Amino acid sequence: MKTVRVWFNHWFSTAYHIICMIREDEDTDFVTVGSNTDENCVYRAVCDEWFTEAKFGDSDEYVDFCVAFCLEHKIDVFLPRRDMMTVCRRLGEFDAIGVKVLAERDYRIISALSDKAETYRLFGDAGMGHIPPHRVVTSAAEYEEAYHRLKTDNNRVCLKFASDEGAVSFRVVDDKVEHNLTEYAGAKIAHANVIGALLRLGKFPALLVMPYLSGAEISVDCLPARDGEHIIIPRYKSWGRSETIKFDPDIANVCGAFLDKFGLRCPCNLQFKYEGGVPYLLEVNARMSGGIQLSYAATGINIPNIAVNRLLGVEKRRVWDRATHVVSFVETPVLLR
Known about the structure:
Number of strands: 16
Helix content: 25-40%
Distance between the termini: 29 Å
Order of helices and strands: EHEEHEHHEHHEHEEEHEEEEHEEHHE
Largest sheet: 6 strands, antiparallel
Strand order of the largest sheet: 15-14-11-12-13-16
Strand content: 15-25%
CATH superfamily of the largest domain: ATP-grasp fold, B domain
Structural class: alpha/beta
CATH architecture of the largest domain: 2-Layer Sandwich
Number of helices: 11
Shape: globular
Number of domains: 3
CATH topology of the largest domain: D-amino Acid Aminotransferase, Chain A, domain 1
């Protein structure tokens, strides 16, 4: 059995599952190397080797470290998350030392997809699917105008930075939040507080303002086909922890058209939300999602393993009967050391 050394740098915690999925292989012994600035990151528990990362001054300095790390630790396959954009821009340096990187090679497309406003423009220009009505604002005055244009008696407005990951900046504008102590506020914020926050910031990155879409949210795990049919697995989220995995031709057709149009080669995730029976694109993540293990549990399609093997020149068989399943999850204690 051949041995392949795989490095995960500074991933989110659900890399725990991705690592376990990659290691489910009858032909290859995948030795996993993990690193993070947090020495107690949970995926440490499933790594064969672990390193605590230092802090770096900028992205290029960090990628210098990545190249050196790959050489020092004899890495065969690199799955980047931290500073992934800069890694993509400098893929040639990893090619030169024989390291295969699970990342897109078209930096122009990946750069555009990292900006939600630019993603909407690409989809709109290509005429595929539906994008929500929205405004891009860079000042408190522009936000105020966008808010009044998009707010109606029957909807709320939401906002997030155009460049955001993990919905960190996502907020629903709701003036009731200031007067209700009996309900968890969550991501809600009063309109006046948005204005105050933006005025205090003064200058801020592009902010997307749009109507809040109240229908079902769909997270779609995708792996573009090298030959044949794309892998497209929609997960319908609920208000609780359960998710329904079912084949939806409307969603699948939009995702398939996107993969064909932009030529992605690595795992990615598209997110949609319904309103009035219409699925609107929310965003595209050019990486594996944090819930990809739920897709695997329902379908048996191991996207991480297939993708890494493909990098190594091996095509793994995949079969999905497209039956509908409901999956959920529980927290499990993990002893780190």
